Amino acid sequence: MKTDNELKQLVKEKYAQIALQSKEENETSCCGAGCGCSNDTGYRNDTAVMAEDYAQLQGYVSGADLGLGCGLPTEYAQIKEGDTVLDLGSGAGNDCFVARSIVGESGKVIGVDMTEVMIEKAKRNAANLGFTNVDFRLGEIEDLPLGSDRVDVVVSNCVLNLVPGKEQAFKETFRVLKPGGHFSISDIVLAGQLPEGLQQDAAMYAGCVSGAIQQDEYLEIIRKAGFVNIQVQKKRRITLPDEILLQYLTPEGVEAFKNSGTGIFSVTVYAEKPQPGCCMPGTGCC
């Protein structure tokens, strides 16, 4: 089993490669820890099964869209003009530029990513667009390069499932949010017990499955970090090809699996950092 640092290095190396590719290339690439972009199973690494279409969103910049997300967190994040927004795992700046179109000139957007090449690409994109209120910082989600109580909204798109220390990542998210602030995070989770071996093969097909945990466990980590009003804003099943499923299930079993609640899902989760006083966890009055 790989250590947390080894997993981070794998992710970092893979995303450095992805930063140099086009969106079209990345849609048949790999975005997860521990998965190779070629393998002896015959599967392709297809992030397009995860991604949603950003093109209709205000502020969309095609050159910053590497096709690596699994949701549209900015659409659900209740961002307001003048807000300070933080994007965890900001990549080439896709969600940051969409958020900037909402916060306007009076707001600020900060993107944090641990991959140097991604940060460089995001900064070039911002400079080419003439944006002066979008700041990209090199750093890890478990140790964010920001002071406490600094941001109004946190967004993230298919990144936290790749972070080994999810508990620490959500603690850091809690720390940097202002009291009363909130997050909207799109991520990959599991529901129910998958057939043995299926998760590994699914990771080879769409790398963002790597590191995914059960939805209930994911939400419990958020609760333990201190967040309140936790909601699943959107949930979408990730459809895997029959050629993978048939390795573990009969044809009848494949149909039953598709119709069950068990599977791999993209979720967008919302939660709030409580204001001091009554609504702090443990007070029993919320």
Describe the structure.
This protein is α/β, with parallel strands linked by helices and 286 residues long. It has a single domain, classed as Rossmann fold, CATH 3.40.50. It has 10 helices and 8 strands. Strands 1, 2, 3, 4, 5, 6, 7 and 8 form an 8-stranded mixed sheet that branches. Strand 1, helix 4 and strand 2 (108-113) form a beta-alpha-beta unit. Helix 6 packs across helix 8 (215-224). The protein is globular. The N and C termini lie far apart (42 Å). 45% of the residues are buried. The model is unreliable at 27-47 (pLDDT under 50).
Rg: 19 Å
Structural class designation: alpha/beta
Low-confidence segments, given as residue ranges, are 27-47
Fraction of residues in helix:
25-40%
Characterize the biggest β-sheet. 8 strands, mixed
Strand-residue proportion:
15-25%
The CATH architecture term is 3-Layer(aba) Sandwich
For the record, give the distance between the C-alpha atoms at the N and C termini, rounded to a whole number: 42 Å
Number of strands: 8
Mean pLDDT: 83
Overall geometric form: globular
- Report the top-level CATH class: Alpha Beta
**Oligomeric form:** single chain
What is the string of SSEs from the N terminus onward? HHHEHEHEEHEHEHEHHE
CATH superfamily: Vaccinia Virus protein VP39
* Number of structurally distinct domains: 1
Tally of alpha and pi helices: 10
* CATH topology-level fold name: Rossmann fold
